[in-house]
Amino acid sequence: MSIDGGLTALGGFLYQTVVALSLKADTFQAYDDAPHLQDDLETLLGFATDGTVRYEDVDQDITIKNVLHDGQPGYILVQVKYSSRFPRPSLNKSDMTEIMARLQASEEKVRAREQHVTAYSLLTNRPLTTGAEDVKRTSHLPFYTTSSLPERYGEERLRQFARRFGCINAEIEDGILRGIGDLLQRTTHPRYNGEPVITREMLIELFTGTQQAHMLSPEIVLEKSQQQLSNLFHMP
What we know:
A hairpin with a 2-residue loop joins β1 (52-57) and β2. Helices cover 51% and strands 17% of the residues. It has a six-stranded mixed β-sheet with strand order 5-4-3-2-1-6, sandwiched between helices. α3 (93-112) runs parallel beside α4 and α5 crosses α6 (169-188). It is of the alpha/beta class. The chain has a single domain (1-236), classed as Trna Endonuclease, Chain: A, domain 1, CATH 3.40.1350.
């Protein structure tokens, strides 16, 4: 692999990992690049809130497990596609055909476990051609697609999540880097480092150092301020 090819692969890995982490970062945040696809993104994030988000599972970038879709529990298979080139090259009919083939192959693996796939998803910073949209419409399952996703969308979701716990920029940067490293270790050595499952509690610990931290609220800020004032006035 050339140096350029290696950097491209690394960029794709980092983008994919940050997007995976961000699926558990609470609330939906709208974006302006592709407003007609926001409903698909919001729906997927809703499933991620309640489901088990797993990194690198059944040959897919991300899976969301134990979600109910039309009353049926199962998996959502998620692929993440990234390009560092600008302008972003479109995903064409051939690209989407390959994506569909990979999703269907993973669906067979899930069926072999006597479980069900209830939907597919594609998250990408690249636009889709009309031919790619036509291929997507042939899916026998719901296919939640978000194209032209801003490059830093996942990172910004993580930043806003951390800020709600009172984290400063340096703590946020460290937390994101720890999350990337943690997922890499879990993916390559799950026996020693734990399964690559992403939880809200995991994110809280990455940014604050403990899973017991609470989001800042006016009540908490008032309580802490009163405690600090009390300590100040009772200092010897």
